[in-house]
Design brief:
- It is a single chain.
- The chain is mostly beta strands.
- The chain has one domain: Single-stranded right-handed beta-helix, Pectin lyase-like (Pectate Lyase C-like, 3 Solenoid).
- The protein has three helices and 29 strands.
- The protein has a 29-stranded parallel beta sheet that branches.
- The termini are far apart.
- The relative contact order is 0.07.
- It is found in: Secreted, Cell wall.
Length: 407
């Protein structure tokens, strides 16, 4: 056999080995029985593909949801821990939820849940469509039939990352969630980049991303259009960074609500910057219930722009309550509003509202370079301040009337 033939055979062997080795680490849902026509149920195929991916100890195994196909998937729990240190789920196609709410007979908390998986990356430029219309119509939060008999107070979040430390979610579209689009719960270290959240403006309780009991989370370079908070930062969240995002329509970037039912809130080191708020109900907001306890501290809102926003800067310690009687409150302190400018919807002339508790004052508030003007020229804007202590470090428009000296 000539040397050229030997080299050719050797090259074929090497290329075949590389192909097989790489294929071993990729688990295409089609190989596990998925149809991908958007009609037949592919849930079991997805779970089988996940079991194989999570059970592969070599390299960075990948579960692949291929492009140009639509997969109908019911409620599914993708559970770890996995054998490999890092795992990828690449979604190139479209995943759709069942149209009927009856698919959630047992657990209505979540549609797609990633549970206890270290080093998980979910990406792929695909679409996750929760098709939540049936849930919106029967929601108790729907103003058309609020609290009517038969309404549901709990709807499934589209995607839930639970205990998924050192994780990443990026380059995806999530739309039409029944309730929250993405929830980050009970985790330490998670990054969200280039996510497009999209639901109609009138959909109830459809927060873009909600955090609770998390540390060291970054949410960046993303677009939010929904019927509720673009980002809501819940209890026991710390070192959360939200930056370089578009928000609107929606209810702004909110911390809270905190202190419901007299609970002890623990929220600190929340930093929000370079957000474009467009046509939102709120901009930078902190909301707490009366009777709560604990703290919300070390918060910054900075370098952001508002376009026709109803309530650009807002602290509300009487959330969902008209009762003036208070016994306790979440203590809000060390909140900085810096370099915030734009226009406010004149339906609410109070562009800056600091409605702090009557029994526990807000302290350590700082205001610097705030310039808010009415979207309709000629309208006078005002501020509303209650039991708030702080300092004005630079120009603030409209003027802060009633801000007490720092204590």
């Amino acid at each position: 056999m000539g040397s050229k033939n030997i080299l050719l055979i050797f090259g074929l062997i090497i290329s075949t080995y590389i192909h097989v080795a790489s294929a071993r680490g990729v688990f295409n849902v089609m190989k596990f029985g998925a149809v991908g026509d958007g009609i037949r149920d592919d849930t079991q195929a997805f779970l089988k593909a996940w079991a194989a991916t999570c059970g592969d100890p070599k390299g960075i195994p990948k579960m692949l949801v291929p492009r140009r196909r639509t997969f109908l998937v019911g409620p599914a729990d993708f559970v770890g821990p996995c054998k490999a240190k890092n795992v990828t789920v690449e979604i190139g196609g479209t995943i759709v939820a069942p149209l009927s709410t009856r698919a959630w007979a047992k657990d209505v908390h979540t549609w797609l849940k990633f549970n206890n998986i270290h080093g998980l990356t979910v990406n792929g430029h695909g679409v996750i469509d929760a098709r939540g219309k049936a849930w919106w119509e029967q929601s108790c939060h729907n103003l058309k039939h609020q609290n009517q008999p038969g309404c549901t107070s709990l709807q499934p979040a589209a995607i839930n990352f639970w205990g998924t430390n050192a994780g990443t979610f990026r380059d995806m579209t999530v739309k039409n969630a029944a309730m929250f689009h993405v929830t980050l719960l009970g985790l330490d270290g998670f990054e969200v980049y280039n996510i497009n959240i999209n639901s109609p403006e009138d959909t109830p309780n459809t927060d873009g991303i909600h955090t609770q009991n998390v540390k060291h989370v970054t949410i960046a370079d993303s677009q939010f259009r929904s019927g509720d908070d673009c980002v809501s930062i819940g209890d026991k969240s710390s070192y959360v960074y939200v930056r370089n995002c578009h928000c609107g329509p929606g209810h702004g970037v909110s911390i809270g609500s905190l202190g419901s039912g007299g609970t002890d809130a623990q929220v600190e080191e929340i930093h929000v910057e370079n957000i474009k708020f467009v046509g939102t109900m709120f901009g930078c907001r902190i909301k707490t219930f009366q009777g709560g306890k604990g703290y919300c501290r070390a918060v910054t809102f900075k370098h952001s722009n508002f376009t026709n926003v109803l309530n650009p800067l807002y602290i509300d310690q009487h959330y969902f309550s008209n009762n003036p009687i208070e016994t306790s409150a979440v203590r809000i302190s060390d909140v900085t509003f810096d370099d915030l400018r734009g226009t406010t919807d004149i339906r609410t002339p109070s562009a800056i509202s600091m409605k702090c508790s009557n029994v526990v004052a807000c302290t350590g508030l700082k205001f610097n370079n705030i310039h808010l003007t009415p979207a309709k020229p000629g309208t006078k804007l005002v501020s509303t301040i209650n039991n708030a202590h702080g300092a004005i470090l630079g120009r603030v428009e409209p003027p802060l009337v009633g801000l007490k000296a720092a204590i």
